[in-house]
Amino acid sequence: MRVLAFDTATARTAVALMDLEAGDNARPRAVLDLALVDDPAPGTRPGHARLLLELVHRLLERSGGGWDAVDRIAAGIGPGSFTGLRIGLATAKALSASSGVPLVGVSTLQALAVPAHGRGKATLAVIDARRGEAFVAGWTAVQDPLTDVPALAPQVLAPEQLAAAAAALGAACSVIGDGAVRFRDVFVRGGAQIPADESPLHRVSAREHCRIAGLQPAAPSTSIEPAYLRAADAEATRA
After folding, report:
1. Which residue range is the domain that position 70 belongs to?
2. Can you tell me the distance from the alpha carbon of 3 to that of 212, in angstroms, rounded to the nearest whole number?
3. Rounded to two decimals, what is the model's pTM?
4. Weakest mean pLDDT among 23-27, 38-42, 98-102, 218-222
5. 12 and 125: one domain?
6. Residue 204 CB partners (closer than 8 Å, separation 6+)
7. Are strands 13-21 and 29-38 parallel, antiparallel or unpaired?
8. Same structural domain for residues 226 and 195?
9. Cβ distance 72 to 213 under 8 Å?
10. Is the domain of 209 the same as that of 104?
11. Distance CA 99, CA 114 (A)
12. How many separate domains does the chain show?
């Protein structure tokens, strides 16, 4: 199965293309693994609108096959930036409609958790939600984020709630994502473990979207919606 995936929930524009085969323990194995990312410089605007389609086309060209070779499109549904999610989902639906390739929505928090999970530790995926809050979802040590529903469902938490959320998942919880970096002090005081700030575990990789989508059924593109989790900044201001 060839899966094209991308995520625009954070400032990073992440795109990946994978050919998947059945692997051990129902975990798909990649026999073709291509990825491109754009990380905007601090203080600059994300390049989703300008670069997403360009990165998609570059990967298709590099793979040696066009849309006829793609079996599934996977799009990150967040939570994350409202603007980024609108751009990503609109692009995914348009590509699915024009190419006839089925679409799957993938949780950005779930994709973050997959490469970080293991070695008998719980995992809490955290995305900086701005406004002094964080989007979180968590898996216990005995769960597999690739296939299991999170023990801690995706939600928005204030800083004072973050340490308790990590502790509830189990001792020595591993915390990853740009929100883990932003609120490092809070988590460390609560006993959680966080990779170094420069660790790739803190950054969204569309590779994990490919693996997750390879295990999920496709759905009508009209049913794929962003997981905002809270009102937009403009709506909050009006309120």
Report:
1. 2-108+204-238
2. 10
3. 0.93
4. 23-27
5. no
6. 7, 9, 10, 12, 14, 76, 108, 111, 112
7. antiparallel
8. no
9. yes
10. yes
11. 29
12. 2
